[in-house]
Fold:
Amino acid sequence: MLLKIEDLDVSYRSDEGEVTAAAMDVNLELERGQVLGIVGESGSGKSTVAMSVARLLPSPPAFYPKGRILFDGVDTLTMPLPELRRMRGKKIGVVFQDPMGSLSPLHRIGEQLVETILLHEKMPVRAAREMALEWLGKVGIPEPAVRARAYPHELSGGMQQRVMIAMGLMLGPDLIIADEPTTALDVTIQAQVLRLMRDLHQANSGVLLITHDLGVVSQMATRLAVMKDGRVVETSDDPAAFFAAPAHPYSQNLVREAKKMELE
Ligand SMILES: Nc1ncnc2c1ncn2[C@@H]1O[C@H](COP(=O)(O)OP(=O)(O)OP(=O)(O)O)[C@@H](O)[C@H]1O
Ligand SMILES: [Mg+2]
Structure:
């Protein structure tokens, strides 16, 4: 099993000491080659769970009252930080909703890709540059050699998101965590970017795809989990069957709403 989340609780403690339980008793599994879609309304705990996997939540305020997150059998919650850092990017790739928050505004995108490559791979700078340009091309950035010199703010939102995808996928991670990877994009570009993610990730990697868009899940996911108020209320190994007949009243509501939107 690539990823096994066991009885996970995640809470946040405010400066005043007030505790919010954001995820409770979460159990999820993801195998290689599978795409696990997590859906649920805003605030249901999707990002909290996804970010916990690579221990990317600032802690404090986040803490873990109980549970384990086994990545290839090793608990990321207790793994020493240097080991965890080596894993991020290389074994676990992340694609966030907000590329401007994840790319450095001060560095050219080419440099940022090269730096990430060299952090994890022993290769001459020249080879890393070539690899960066190759990936800019793969994610559909025209004239990669020119665009590599751009700063993030000089690119459109869709282009920035493509750079994030290159960053998340280029080292061939075993697990890709994509948190609302297309939400900020307009609808035509959303489809292109999703197709890219589907085509470029290695067939034997696993994808954890967070979205509130059931259409995206139905196109991409091989399994899904529905979250509400910090809990997983339903899981399914068969998205098509889920959409035809969701079991939990909350899922029924979600599917009904999504179908209504489709008709509009
Ligand atoms: N840094 C934080 N401090 C305190 N509470 C937080 C923090 N981050 C998230 N929360 C709370 O945790 C709960 C789950 O939030 P989370 O961001 O995981 O939801 P989500 O399902 O990803 O929502 P969205 O669809 O809006 O991204 C919410 O109640 C949220 O207010
Ligand atoms: Mg979120």
